[in-house]
Write a structure and sequence with these properties.
about 60% helix, about 210 residues, globular, 2 domains, 10 helices, mainly alpha
Length: about 210
Amino acid sequence: MLQQGWCMQLCIVNNDEQKITTMARLKALNPDEATGKTKELFNVIQSKLGVVPNMMRTMGNSPALLQSYLNLNDTLAHGILGAKNGELLALAISENNSCNYCVSAHSYIGEKLVHIDANTLVNARNGKSADAKTDAALKFANTLVDKKGLVNDSDVDTVKAAGFTDGEIGEIVGHVALNILTNYFNNTADTEIDFPVTKPLPAIEA
């Protein structure tokens, strides 16, 4: 979820009018009551973010899952594609997978921490960009999601023609995998959104 690395301070929403309160299907652990490896991971997250977001608190039920997520997220954040592309990919993929938690989180992070303008964020949710190369990356990512990874020669040739190297294409696949993990996890858990809630696209576009 946090594509810029995760050494940053997040402002998690406490205003009940700005967040969606649901009966989550999986329990978000209280960091003050966590023990063992989960407590160790929560302490690291708290020291870097200033808070433990609900997704990570819920992942903490399985320290193996939480550790795996943190490792992959942090590694990709230091990859070739960079923070901005990571956030735009996350928005395109999360919108495609109907993950309200992730769309809200990445909209906030993209605007406040990566400083991406609102129009670019909305375009990314629609799987497009005014920049031709970025547009090709978002379309390829959504093609991977739509085809469940079974892309063809033409799909790969198209993203290569946009200027992406084999390594960069590999990272796009990595971002798809990372976001499928967080999307599916949050959709399964019905995680309470603790970021400013992003409106559905039809409501924005109306």
